[in-house]
Every structure is written in structure tokens, then in C-alpha cells.
Please model this.
Amino acid sequence: MHKNLEDIHGREVSYMRISVTDRCNLRCTYCAGEGLEFIPHPNILRYEEILELMGMARNLGVRKIRFTGGEPFVRKGFADFMVTAAERYGDLNLCVTTNATLIGDHVERLAAAGIKRVNISLDSLDPEKFKAITGRDHYAVVRENIDRCLAANMTLKINAVAMKGVNDDELGDFIEFARTHPVDFRFIEFMPVGLETGWDDSRVWTAAEILSEARPFAELVPVTAKGARRHGPARMYEIEGGLGRIGLISPYSDHFCSTCNRLRITSDGNLRTCLFSDKVYRLRPALRHPALGVEKVERIIRLAGRNKPIGNELLRKMRAADHGVCKTRMASIGG
Model:
């Protein structure tokens, strides 16, 4: 019998995020920007290798796997891969994070395969501001595909990176969107990840500020502590008389490291045990070695996961540095 992975702080890993590509068809200012150098294709994990890793993750006690990018749907055959993964690992909770520009043609097929939990990034409800943030004029298609996902009875979480001077003037519109749509609209604090993002402490729109500023727009009812645990790091609030809910994720101002249950595997096969750490464990060489393979990878992950750091301690050290940020861009990590 395989023993579930638990770190030295008593946190049990049950959630893994797997990036399938570092490429994206948007150029969001806080994530990537223009002029990127992408990972060479031979260094990207093959779908067959990802399926092997999924089986290994299940042996570690992982019960939820989220596929990310970049933008996962820019990779050829991703929808086919998702269906195959659902057929092979029907006991795992499989989810996907997307910018919703390319998911439209695949919604019904994914829903039929049982993949109904989708996170969608949407940082503005204003088409012109959306274009300024993402570098692309795709707002209309994103909105259309959100509606298509809802029509297929998918469970949607809409994620907005909360940034002062960028989208803090849209709070009323965001809340109204959640009031009129059956979604969880979640605000994620702008994190110090990536040298190219222009991150600055003054641009962080904190969860506490958002909650205070939201009061005039809606009667917000906190979800009970028991219920909140089912929604990961987000503190959830029901909207009185509304269809949806508001969520606040505060990795910067009010960390949730004591309950962190996740590991990340990048598209080039590196393990990251904390979003705020640049330390990686190289899995791809072992995975592709004929005498090592997935068994060696499992041993590497068990050792690395055992020593999973407390992210807030890393963040404190970065704060002490001059404009200290995690050097790796978010698109390469996989969120």
C-alpha cells in the first residue's frame, strides 16, 4: 500500500497542478508580456508522460489535478488528451484553468466526459481594458464561451487578478456579474512572481480592501468555515439575492500556507513545491531514462514534497529584498 505524501509541517498533498505548455495566445501584463522565449518543444512533457505522472500522483494521495498553461488549449490535441485522462482516471477530480478564448468548440465534449470544473481568467469586464491588459481584442469571445460553459452546466470559477490602478474601479461591475451569473467570482491578490510583471507593493489591492469596498455594492454573507475548506484558499461570500458568490484569495496579505496541499509540475517537467520559490526538482530526465522512469520520479517527489517550504517565510525574505520577486514568470510555472 502506498503512503500518502505528507510534509514535515504535517500538510498532506492532495492537489497537483500540471502545466501542459508555457505558450499562450494572450500577453497579460502581470504574467508574460511580449518578446518571450518559449521552452523548446522537445523539452515539453509528452501527453503519454503526463498520463504516467497522473498515475504516480494518485499513488501519492493526490485526488485533484488541474491542467494549466500558459493557455492549455493552444497545445494541439489538448481536448483529446483531457478526454483520455478522464477515461483513464475517472476517480480523480480533473479540472482546467483557461483564458476561455479557445475552449468554445470543446465545451460540450469535455462536459460529456465529466470534466465540468473550469477556472477562467477574466481581469476586466470592459472590452477596451481587457485589450489593454491582455494585449489582444478577445473579450467578446471570452464572454461567449463563459455562457457556453454555463449552458453545459459546468461549474465556473472566474478569477481576476486584483490590481490597484488597473481594475479596482470595476468592483461594482464584478459584483453585479456574480449576482447575475451562477459563478464564483474570485479576486486574487497581485503576487510578486516574475521579473517582467512590473510588480510593486503599491499595486496590490488586498483582500481586506476589496471586502471593505464591496460592502456598498452588496450584502455579503460569509460561507461557514466548514464550507470554506471545500473551496481551497478562497474565503467565499454569498451575495444576498444573487446567483453567484464572491471569493477572496490573499496569498500576499494574509497567507494560507499552513493549509497548502498542492504541488506544481511545469510543462518542461520540473517540480515546484511552492509558488514563491525558484527552486525546482528536475523530473523529466528521470522520467525519460530507460532504467529509472516513473518509479524514480515518485521517489524524487516524495523527498521534495517532504521538505515543502512555508511560502510565507519565503515571501518575507523577498519583502526584505529590494523589490524582491520570484524570478520565474507565471506562464512558465503554470499558476
Notes: The domain at 15-333 is CATH 3.20.20.70 (TIM Barrel). The chain has one domain: 15-333. The two ends are 32 Å apart (CA to CA).
